[in-house]
């Protein structure tokens, strides 16, 4: 069993990297990748390195493509590669500046100290919108996290701040330069038309991307079939992950995502 997409508290997950590895052991996973948003610090914190399960380096990069915010997963790269380090610093700076601006906007709405509260919840420099969403819930301005996104933090809302994330080409080429493989994360979550999704895949492949998440978190059989067929059409390797964040907010538990269709070419075959 494998799971190549989940989060620790180094980004917006609830558990420690070691806690996730312990859980992974319990559920019988053999190959995993911790893919925190824009950071590999959680992976690097695993000391001593885990040996009884295969843990490959991973990251979920926030990426700008045209007017869309996308997620590109990098897998099995050299964690010390200078180009990768530089890209992660760029992401961290962008994320911090965005968080400060989100804080200012929420302050304008009368919510004092939102930035400081989000920092406390995050407990790391990776302050994400889910942390602000939790602050909004805590003060009673949103009834749940989803509501906080639809009302304040989602695209086009008051506290939505366009962010200078890496562009698609730089993100993909950086992962490839660092010896890794780039994967389009949860392709059905961006609201793209079929034509736009094909356009994205072509641009992604031109930059050197080689994989797509055929299974990601909670999906219907039909959705899996749709992306599975797409992976064949574009000759992309198939990845699979739970996108687990915590028991509270994730429908799919660690390693409990659906199986890949048999006709897909698993991206992990080359590593095992
Ligand atoms: P960020 O990287 O800070 O922009 O935050 C993106 C993260 O927010 C995603 O990875 C999800 O974990 C979470 N998220 C995005 N949209 C929603 C939503 N509508 N409701 C709840 N959580 C969301
Ligand atoms: Mn997340
Ligand atoms: Mn994502
Ligand atoms: Mn994710």
Give a verbal description of the structure.
The protein is of the alpha/beta class. It contains nine helices and nine strands. It has helices at residues 17-26, 41-44, 82-108, 114-122, 129-138, 145-153, 168-177, 194-206, 221-233; strands spanning 2-3, 31-32, 54-55, 58-65, 68-75, 166-167, 181-184, 211-216, 237-241. The strands form two sheets. Strands 6-4-5-7-8-9 form a six-stranded mixed beta sheet. The protein has a three-stranded parallel beta sheet with strand order 1-2-3, with no helix packed on it. Helix 9 (221-233) links the parallel strand 8 (211-216) and strand 9 (237-241). Helix 4 packs across helix 5 (129-138) and helix 5 crosses helix 6 (145-153). The protein is globular, with a radius of gyration of 18 Å. The chain starts with a strand and ends in a 31-residue tail after the last strand. One manganese (II) ion (MN) binds at residues 5, 7, 60, 243.
């Amino acid at each position: 069993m494998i799971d190549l997409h989940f989060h620790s508290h180094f980004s917006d997950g609830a558990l420690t990297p070691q806690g996730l590895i312990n859980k992974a052991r319990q559920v019988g996973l053999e190959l995993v990748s911790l893919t925190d948003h824009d950071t590999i610090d959680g992976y690097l914190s695993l000391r001593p390195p885990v040996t009884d399960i295969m843990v490959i380096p991973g990251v979920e990069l926030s990426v700008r493509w045209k007017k869309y915010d996308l997620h590109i997963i990098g897998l099995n790269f050299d964690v010390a590669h200078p180009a990768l380090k530089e890209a992660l610093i760029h992401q961290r700076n962008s994320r911090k500046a965005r968080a400060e601006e989100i804080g200012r906007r929420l302050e304008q709405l009368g919510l004092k100290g939102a930035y400081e509260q989000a920092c406390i919840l995050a407990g790391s420099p990776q302050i994400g919108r889910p942390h602000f969403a939790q602050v909004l819930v805590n003060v009673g301005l949103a009834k749940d996290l989803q509501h906080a996104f639809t009302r304040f933090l989602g695209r086009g809302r008051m506290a939505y701040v366009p962010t200078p994330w890496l562009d698609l080409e730089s993100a993909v080429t950086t992962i490839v330069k660092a010896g890794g493989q780039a994967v389009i994360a949860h392709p059905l979550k961006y609201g793209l038309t079929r034509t736009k999704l094909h356009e994205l895949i072509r641009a992604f492949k031109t930059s050197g991307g080689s994989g797509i998440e055929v299974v990601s978190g909670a999906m219907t059989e039909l959705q899996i079939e749709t992306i599975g067929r797409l992976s064949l059409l574009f000759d992309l390797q198939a990845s699979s992950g739970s996108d687990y964040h915590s028991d509270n907010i994730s429908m799919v538990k660690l390693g409990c995502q659906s199986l890949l269709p048999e006709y897909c070419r698993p991206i992990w075959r080359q590593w095992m």
